[in-house]
Write a structure and sequence with these properties.
Layout (H helix, E strand, L loop, with lengths): L2 E5 L3 E3 L4 E8 L7 E7 L6 E6 L6 E3 L7 E6 L4 E6 L8 E8 L12 E2 L3 E6 L1
Parallel strand pairs: 2-11
Antiparallel strand pairs: 1-3, 3-8, 4-5, 4-9, 5-6, 7-8, 9-10, 9-11
Length: 123
C-alpha cells in the first residue's frame, strides 16, 4: 500500500514558522523525487518546492524561495518542509507527492499523492 502522510500543519501568526513532515511507505522512496504543493479554497493547486531522489537538487516556487526549505532523509523515508516568515497568503492545504522523474520538477507528473495537512496563517 502506497502512503504519503503529511503532518505538522496548524495555526500560526504572520511571521511565524512551521515544519511540515511527509512520511512515505509502500514504494521505492529512494527512486522518487518528492514535491510539496498547496491549494487554497477557490484557487488552483500550485507548486511549492521539490527535491530530487538523492536530495542533490531542489526547486522552489518564486513566491516561497528564500523563506521555505525542503529536505529529505532517505534512510527513514521522510521529507520535510521548513516554512519561515509565513504570510496570510500561505494559508492552504499542503500536499506531498512522489514522482518517478528522479530529477524532480514542479511540472513533472506525480504518481502518488497524500491527503495533505492544513496551514492557516493569521494577520
Amino acid at each position: 500500500e502506497v502512503q504519503l502522510q503529511a503532518s505538522g500543519g496548524g495555526l500560526v501568526q504572520s511571521g511565524g514558522s512551521l515544519r511540515l513532515s511527509c512520511a512515505a511507505s509502500g514504494f521505492a522512496f529512494d527512486d522518487y523525487a518528492i514535491g510539496w504543493f498547496r491549494q487554497a479554497p477557490g484557487k488552483r493547486r500550485e507548486g511549492v518546492a521539490c527535491i530530487s531522489s538523492s536530495g542533490g537538487s531542489t526547486f522552489y516556487g518564486l513566491f516561497v524561495k528564500g523563506r521555505f526549505t525542503i529536505s529529505r532523509d532517505n534512510a527513514n523515508n521522510m521529507v520535510y518542509l521548513q516554512m519561515n516568515s509565513l504570510r496570510p497568503e500561505d494559508t492552504a492545504t499542503y500536499y506531498c507527492a512522489a514522482s518517478k522523474d528522479w530529477a524532480g520538477s514542479l511540472t513533472s507528473d506525480y504518481n502518488y499523492w497524500g491527503h495533505g495537512t492544513r496551514v492557516t496563517v493569521s494577520s
